[in-house]
Amino acid sequence: MFSSTPNVKIVYRSSEMPELRSPYLICGLPGTGYIGKLTLDYMIHELNASHLVDIYSSSFPPKIVVRSNGIAELMKNTIFYSKAISSSNNDLLLLTGDSQPENPDSEYLLIEQILDIAAKFNTKKIFALAGYATGQFVDNPRIFGTATDIDMLDKFKERNIIPMDIGSIIGGMNGLIIGVAKLRGMHGTCILVETSGYVVDAKASKFILECLTSILGISIDMANLEKKAKETEILIQTIQQQIAREGLEYQQSSMPRKPANTGYIS
What is the tally of helices (H) and strands (E) in the chain? Predict the structure, then answer.
């Protein structure tokens, strides 16, 4: 597999490791429309997930992030965990973060670190969430998906997930992680939701979270995300109105003007 790197620092938040039952790893890092991160941050909050580990890397942008409490920190990726309420469900590892690495080599190396952590808990399945940029605003975003095994692909039809076309390419860690996981004998699924790519799309995040919870067989209160989704709709309407106004103004300015009356007939 890919070698370790000295520029990654892993900090566990407790000296005692939690006891988890073959948890699923759910991944959502910043990307198109901030779909993955927004969805994972929401899940972490609503599930009251516990802080497991922080992962720092010199491959992240050279910046600090000021948190809601005013404290400054280096950029990082973070894994939380949530224990299932029912014995019929799996525990969850929830990966979110401030950024993805700035170069491809570091993406591979960081993914290896993340999967090493997941392997400590006997993780066998990974779900990655991402945005599918279309450049257009849509009322009902479609859900697309790909997986590393045919069994999951067969289940897509049950949830109206459209299989990705042959030759499709998914860039960034939200896609790459399931490919690396496959080399380690893990099963990976990447679910993508349509988004314009122009806004932080809470509406699309709601659609993808509803799809994910259906697959996982869990329930999450969507009320707060619904409010954010409505805010996204208002923002989109504002943008569309602005585009329409600018288009009309441009059209009017481009129209030939009626010549002044000179008294001549031609």
Answer: 6, 11
Do the bridges between strand 77-82 and strand 50-57 make them parallel or antiparallel, or are there none, so unpaired? antiparallel
Residue-wise pLDDT for 50-93, tens only, equals: 999 999 999 999 999 998 889 999 999 999 999 998 887 899 99
Nearest-CA neighbor of 111 among 186, 42, 209, 16? Answer: 186
Q: How far is CA 211 from the centre of its chain?
A: 13
All structural domains of the chain: 8-246 (3.40.50.10900)
Q: For residues 170 and 130, is the Cβ–Cβ distance under 8 A?
A: yes
Give the count of alpha carbons within 13 A of 10, CB side only: 17
Question: What does each C-alpha distance from 80 to 45, 65, 85, 116, 214 come to in angstroms?
Answer: 10, 19, 16, 15, 21
pLDDT at 143: 96
Q: Which SS3 state, helix, strand or coil, does residue 7 take? A: coil
How far, in Å, CA of 227 to CA of 36, rounded?
18
| Terminal Cα-to-Cα distance of the chain (whole angstroms) | 82
Question: Backbone phi, then psi, for 156, in 5-degree steps?
Answer: -60, -40
Of 198, 192, 164, 180, whose CA–CA distance to 28 is shortest?
192
CA distance 82 to 48: 7
Determine contact, residues 131/201, Cβ cutoff 8 Å.
yes
pLDDT value, residue 88: 79
- Whole-angstrom distance, CA of residue 19 vs CA of residue 52: 12
Q: CA torsion sign, 230 to 235 to 238 to 244? A: negative
Residues with pLDDT less than 50, the chain: 2-3, 6, 250, 258-266
Residue 252 one-letter amino acid:
Q
